[in-house]
Amino acid sequence: MRLLHLSLTNFRNYSRLELDPPAGVIVLQGDNAQGKTNLLEGIYYLSRMHSPRTSVDRELINWLALEDDLPFARLVGQIQTEQQTDQIELSLVQSSGRRPNNNAAVLRKHIRVNGVSKRILDAVGLLSAVLFMPQDINLVSGAPYLRRRYLDDTISQMDPQYSRELQEYNRVLTQRNYLLKSLRDARNDSGQLLFWNQRLVEHGAYVTVRRQHATQLLDEFIQDIHPKLTAESEQLRLEYCASVRLERPPGTTYQIPLMAEHSTVAGPGSSLHAVAASFAEQLHEVRAKELEQGVSIIGPHRDDFRFLADGVDMNIYGSRGQQRTVTLSLKLAEVEWITQEKVDKPLLLLDDVGSELDALHRDCLWGAIDRAQQVIITTTAVTQLDEAFLERATRWQVRGGRIQELSHP
Q1: Is the pTM here over 0.85, yes or no?
Q2: What residue ranges in 46-84 does DSSP mark as E strands?
Q3: For residue 240, which of 202, 201, 209 has the smallest C-alpha distance?
Q4: I need a surface site. Which of 45, 205, 270, 345 has the fewest CB within 10 A?
Q5: Mean pLDDT, residues 59-87 taken together
């Protein structure tokens, strides 16, 4: 996959940018706060329809544009795959209305693919991209929700149904938690839970099985990648930690949704039917505890996955250097998985990785880069990069939201 053209208007510190990125490796150099990371963020935004750095889309609009009557930002990417060429256009427009609860301005997101309006779920993953940033080390050292979000984003690139099931699961979870709280406070009839239990199982089982499958696939790639990053001194495994038993208990008779009775998810791991049955049984088991606490205590919203290096949990006991290497292994495994799934290599976006890695890790990373169709690397100092590597790369310089190509010295 290649990004043929990128257009940014009023996005972060880019008032207006038009680029035609070439194939191969692009090195984007510049001082801090000039727009290096913003460029990668814009490409990633076109891939996932959300920012890796903020959950508030209004922050993406250029601060000068916010002074206009109708502030907006616009991103356009023309992408080429082996089969076709597509154009993705995403606009963020601040309307004149206000939200009634906090008087905040309403921001609307408009998405078009080849000129046709699309929903967010239908546009995610059309542009395949893998982003590595220094703060991604938090995937190993941080809270479980970061790892769940990483899996959700990665799976959604390749499975549109997953996005729909996850969205519906979160909606049902909110409704069910509201009901549990009202039942706890008012001591009402808990029979009302049956409907929401069935819906929770119906959508939650699919989310759990797809996450488990994704973890197994990433684990297979990591077993080959990680030893190369550690001079064959360390083996790394991924382990999915589900709050729901992944197999149906013997003799289970509790009712499960009709959808799950006849469905499976292709690939290794537990069947959708078995997970749905087990999920339903466990909801029955923890019913009293949930009514007492007024919240759902099992389900994919409580899941996690672990990184085990030679059997040691890197989430807890890994050094900073080990956690950085684990993160890099995970991102390179993601590249291999997307390539296998889509039969097309994703864009590789590397934000200031040279300052974070030692010589061994950089050499392994350069090897992975050589197999990619298009890579953008940002750096504050090109001295961190190998001279031979720079010779075969296209070099750009960014200063104050403006990018120009540099000739080789």
Answers
A1: yes
A2: 72-80
A3: 209
A4: 345
A5: 91
**Which tens digits make up the pLDDT trace of 281-294?**
999 999 999 999 99
Contact 75, 45 (CB under 8 A): yes
DSSP state of 395: E
pLDDT tens digits for range 250-278: 554 444 444 433 333 444 457 899 999 99
What is the rounded distance in angstroms from the CA atom of residue 406 to the CA atom of residue 40?
Answer: 19
Region for 18 from its dihedrals, namely left if φ exceeds 0, alpha if ψ lies in -120 to 50, beta otherwise: beta
* DSSP reduced 3-state for 222: helix
Residue 201, burial from CB neighbour count under 10 angstroms (0-12, 13-18, 19+) = buried
Neighbours of 408 (CB within 10 A): 9
Sorted by where each starts, the structural domains of the chain and their CATH numbers stand as 2-128+347-406 (3.40.50.300), 147-305 (1.20.1050.90)
Burial (CB < 10 A; 0-12, 13-18, 19+), residue 40, is: buried
Report the alpha-carbon distance of residue 249 to residue 275 in Å, rounded: 10
Q: Which amino acid is at 51?
A: S
Count Cβ atoms within 10 A of the Cβ of residue 244 and give its class: 0-12 exposed, 13-18 middle, 19 or more buried.
Answer: buried
Question: Token digits for 173?
Answer: 């979870």
